Amino acid sequence: MNILNKSISKAVDRPVKVLQFGEGNFLRGFVDYMIDVANEKGVFDGSVAIVKPIAFGNLDMFHEQECQYTLSLRGKENGETKVVNRIITCVSDAVDTINEFEKYENYAKCDTLRFVVSNTTEAGIVFDETDKFDAAPPKTFPGKLTKFLFDRFSFYNGDESKGLILIPCELIENNGPQLKKCVLQFADLWNLSDEFKAWIDNACIFCSTLVDRIVTGYPRDEVEKMCEEFGYKDNLVDTGELFALWVIESDKDISKELPLDKAGLPVIFTDNQKPYRERKVRILNGAHTSFVLASYLAGNDFVKESMEDPTVRKFMMDTVFGEIIPTLSLPKEECEEFAHAVIERFENPFIKHALLSISLNSTSKWKSRCMPSLKGYIEKTGEIPTHLSFSLAALMSFYTGSEIRENALIGNRDGAEYKIMDDADALEFFKENSSKSSLEFANAYLSNVRFFGEDLTKYEGLAEKVAGYLDDIRANGMRKALENVIA
Questions:
Q1: Distance between CA atoms of 458 and 449, rounded to whole angstroms?
Q2: Rounded to whole angstroms, how far apart are CA atoms 386 and 388?
Q3: % of the chain exceeding 70 in pLDDT
Q4: Stated pTM of the model
Q5: DSSP H helical segments within 73-140, as ranges?
Q6: How many angstroms separate the CA atoms of 205 and 163, rounded?
Q7: Where are the beta strands (DSSP E) in 3-44?
Q8: 3-state DSSP call for residue 85?
Q9: Residue 353: CA atoms inside 13 Å, Cβ hemisphere, count?
Q10: Are 191 and 237 contacting, i.e. CB atoms less than 8 angstroms apart?
Q11: How far is Cα 106 from Cα 102, in angstroms, rounded to an integer?
Q12: Which residues is 354 bridged to in the sheet?
């Protein structure tokens, strides 16, 4: 069986318009997929040069396959299970910033280059004052980027038409301004010219983004069978879910230069991504956090299994449609459409998403994902939301334990131990308080400003309601308590 290359993919040569920091699964299954579709639809004519920003690993497989790879998108869409396979042909080069520094550096002189995308993890956008301009390359991603931009600025003598559009995909809020701040900090640290800093301000556009797609990566257990179906060998197969959303926020409109939406792709250009981020965090992440702990204690182990459990499913649906969506700022119809897509994502038969994995650091997750909806519901209706307050009782029940072992609080489900993973202070709190009466426990938890940033017992009746649910869970078990809530 031949290995995938350009003779098989029939790739078209296109000018390099995108420099991509990161060769990982996510960017290949999200950004490169979108560029590839836009090329096919005739609304974009450009290729991607991938740069590997870290020392770990190598690009041998990329070179062997001439940067061609197969993306398999799998999931449920409009009630139907679908698999969509596509050879991604838009990647034209893969460069190692460390071992091929000169080649990487020469891309700063590329006349057709217009965009820089990145996914260097949340820890990637950092300023490190020990980083060196003279290093080949600097060790941090913002350091590498600053030197790259300075090389481009210098080569083109400050020509503002040669500025770049920077689209970071790291999962931090305001990733664009954060990246720009780091670049300007390095410019100051390295005593780069005021003219360069003005060029950064005037000629470059730093976008903030919200990215949403689960990319499950290389299908190790299935790849042999998949390649038999493809008819070629592919060591770079990538897999992901069908759903995708890319919200790109910028001060200047870039939609005409990057018309991905014109290719029918789920890309939104805006000057304010906040409502979309709020919708994602509260519906997708909030739904997860509000039901997974209860579902686990009710006997389930995976998200898909939870969606096949009528009791858990109804609890989740009532939470999302009855208590979360009414608090959001986007139109109700848009939020409900997004919520239905989220439910199909939870039902994806190709993804085994373990509830215990999602349970990690649930105390901080509840604060960021569920608390805004709880407060918004109280402010809007004057009432305590049933399902969101039950989710607090479920968290307290899940976090019940008297022993910390190997940095985990040990919980118990039907006689079997499970590990509760959170920061040490949180685990110590629950170890000391989870054996108290339901009302004492609820008051101690809800009044803990470190968990919530405020004292939630100020909401009249909340502690009593949570304690009542916890009493029910303790007396009758999680499943019966859930049934009582959704009755």
A1: 12
A2: 6
A3: 100
A4: 0.92
A5: 101-106
A6: 8
A7: 16-21
A8: strand
A9: 21
A10: no
A11: 6
A12: 302
